[in-house]
Design a protein that fits this description.
The chain is an all-alpha fold. The chain has helices spanning 7-17, 22-29, 33-41, 47-57, 61-67, 77-111. It contains 6 helices and no strands.
Length: 112
C-alpha cells in the first residue's frame, strides 16, 4: 500500500466516470466551479471539504479511503458488521415466524 493517496484524483475519476458536471457540484457546495477543478488537483483535502463534496456528489469518498487501509487495522467497523449480521439473522427469524403465524391463523379460521 502506498503511504498516501491522491484525494483529488479520486474525486476527478468519480466525476468523470459518472459524467457529472462540476458546475452542479459547485452549486450544491455553494462554491465557484473553478474550486472543483482546484480540488481535483490537490493530493490532500480538508475533511470538512471532502464531506461537502460527498454530500454534493452523494458518494462516500471516506469509505473508499478506509478500504485502502490494510485489513489488519483495527476499527469499529467490525461492530457494525456484527450488528448487520445480527439484524439479518433476526430478519430471517421474523420472516419465519410471520409465515408460521399466518399458517396458524389459516388453520384456526378453517376450524370455525
Amino acid at each position: 500500500m502506498e503511504n498516501s493517496i491522491h484525494i483529488g484524483a479520486m474525486i476527478k475519476d468519480y466525476i468523470d466516470q459518472r459524467h457529472l458536471t462540476r458546475t452542479i457540484i459547485a452549486r450544491q457546495m455553494e462554491t465557484p466551479s473553478t474550486a472543483i477543478y482546484a480540488y481535483e488537483k490537490r493530493k490532500y483535502i480538508h475533511c470538512q471539504t471532502l464531506m461537502r463534496i460527498c454530500v454534493a456528489t452523494k458518494y462516500n469518498f471516506f469509505l473508499d479511503i478506509a478500504n485502502m487501509l490494510p485489513r489488519d487495522f483495527e476499527s469499529d467497523s467490525r461492530k457494525v458488521s456484527d450488528k448487520d449480521a445480527l439484524i439479518a439473522k433476526q430478519a430471517v427469524e421474523i420472516n419465519k415466524l410471520t409465515l408460521e403465524n399466518n399458517l396458524l391463523k389459516e388453520l384456526i379460521m378453517g376450524k370455525k
